[in-house]
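Troubleshooting: if your tokenizer reports a length mismatch, compare your output against this known-good record of 478 residues.
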Amino acid sequence: MNDPSFLSLVPAIVAVTLAFYTRQVLLSLFLGVVSAGPVLWYQTGDASGLNFVANFFIPALGTKGYAQILLIYLWCLGGLLGIWAKTGGALHFATVVGGRLTQGPRSSMLFGWLLGCIFHQGGTVSTVLAGTTVKPVTDKHHVSHEELAYVVDSTASPVATILPFNAWPAYVATLVLGTVPSCFPDIVTSVEFFFTSIRYNFYGFIAVGMTLLTALQVWPILGTKMSAARHRSRTMGKLDADDAVPVLNVEGVDTDPASQIAEGYTPNLLDFLIPISVLLGTAIIPYACFDTNLINEAFMACLLTAILLAWLQGMRVKDIMEGFLNGCKTMTIGAIILGLAVTMAFVSSQLHTADYMVQLIGNNIPAIALPALLTMLCMLIAFACGTSFGTYAVVFPIAMPLAWSIEADPTYLSICFGAVLGGAVFGDQCSPISDTTILSSMFTGCDLMDHVTTQLPLALMASGLGILCSTLAVAIAL
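Known-good structure output:
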């Protein structure tokens, strides 16, 4: 094989560039994988390298890591959402608890923030559940849709990276596996590294904290447009700007969660509280007490608990299975994106993209500057692509060996790990082509660009503070 060259960057460049211009993440990631075929042919001199299916898709999608993603993301999480839609458990929880806790704009936004943290599975899960359940409460108390969309969006992916009892650790573990053999020798160790590096995900913590302070109406700097939206809604009762346009045309589409509840079934708090308690208890207690990761088992136990509860309380098996299958269907596109992202990571390893990056700039970047550069790089890529997962697939396999070549220290590697984790979440949160941005706008009734332009100043403040913290962390660690 020839030495790694600029051509090893071609798949990543193709994927990112097409995502920016076409705004089609699926197509962009797929063509990024396809473009790896000619590069592999050039590097090896073997025409069989053109077979991108055999060389990239089959090995990447046949891994244990991707099987775990399908189990958690597609079956367990999708099925759980489908069961909750049939029982109305999550909706009933929000309605009952929200009605008791909310007395005005501040408490209703705080309730929205709490829901975002409770529905901490990240991305579409958090935005849809939190948005649909809290909107009636905040509308009643004259909270602008711009404020609500920010609260929902900023407690979606950021929370999922600091409360990672979800699919994120398993996914990221597959991307970093083997990139630094001494730190990522296997999936279990890689997942553990994710957990130990959470404290360096400064953007995640700051974004969630700023959102809390904004919900409590004590954060002093909102930006001109968000301040105007708050003043408009409080003084005139206008939840949207006069020229606002719905993010998506949902006319004729049933987006009312109450209409999805199985006929004859009466929702209650147990439908939500027991499964979520099983999920958190099974995931957190063994890890905290015995250093044992049971995240896969936690999701399966949660799903089975939700199914059993529904059946014991009189729901027909037909309705249970319908809810489960409908929930899985909603996750299909996400599962495809994840599969393509995992394949892109495999492409980077096969083409030795990281080796080239190390050779190119490894000796030219001061150790103290790398976390800031990684954060900004991820911010730009994720904003252009509209996906944190896709950005992770491109950046993690390159960033980890690069960081290790600059400073072979586990703490330094953790700081860089956290920088990538947070930087990509910024782009996912703020990009107008991101699914979380679009769904946050849709399910809170907010105009898409109103949401983007009111959220961006706050997110930029959080990212600036995150970059400062990571730089200081390196200065202290080294």
